[in-house]
Amino acid sequence: MPVDKTVDLSSRQLRRLPLHICSFRELVKLYLSDNNLNHLPPELEQLQNLQILALDFNNFKALPLVVCTLKQLCILYLGNNKLCSLPLELRLLQNLKTLWIESNCLQRLPEVVCELSLLKTLHAGSNALRTLPTQLRCLQELRTIWLSGNLLSEFPPVLLDMPFLEVIDVDRNSIRFFPSLAHLPGLKLVIYDHNPCRNAPKVAKGVRRVGRWSEETPEPRKRSGAVIEITLDEKPSPPPASKPEPEAEPC
């Protein structure tokens, strides 16, 4: 058993998880990123103290159900796989606070995500999402949502009913019009760059905007009928690649 209760087997070209890892029952962090995994052994269920599991950059076409038995998980990295859906059993992970499902094959956000009541950070960028489920508003702990690089043609209406959101990223979508976000009291940052929008979202004082006309009034300035382009803000770095530490129907 490692002294720091951490095992990092990232970038080892693994095709299967070494079974002896499942005997480390006090393990807290398991990093399996950047391998060739497409399944996990049922013995993984023995790791009931696991809080961080990194499965990103592998070949999973479906989330192994054994992952959903690890009820102490706080952070789950599933990005850069081949997932088209998530199992209903994911609802069992009621301690999950951070979920990364970016760069998969999701055409809709699985509604089971809306049952993760403690979720604070959701990274669902670089999929093929066109809408968000209305049940997302049930996630009252959600503070950060990353939706860049999807197929959104309108600003997701459900986000207008989530007053505790602090960061909204809808960069690189197909949104042409932004509603006012000035009524969201918790908002600190909205990223809307690289959309074919006709306006910038109105925000409350002190909220940072990143996108066209972000330093100007919410609409582009016009002079003699022509739209004057405003110099773009430089977009901040995307969510960190390094792993952070953990810190239905209507509800």
UniProtKB/TrEMBL annotation:
Coiled-coil region list: none
Region (Disordered): 211-251
Gene Ontology annotations for the cellular component aspect, listed alphabetically: cytoplasm
Residue spans of biased composition, Basic and acidic residues class: 212-222
The keyword Acyltransferase appears for this protein: no
Domain of life of the native organism: Eukaryota
InterPro entries in alphabetical order: Leu-rich_rpt, Leu-rich_rpt_typical-subtyp, LRR_dom_sf, LRR_domain-containing
SUPFAM superfamilies with a match to the protein in the record: L domain-like (SSF52058)
Keyword DNA repair included in the entry's annotation: no
UniProt entry keywords in alphabetical sequence: Leucine-rich repeat, Repeat
Identification of the protein by name: Leucine rich repeat containing 10
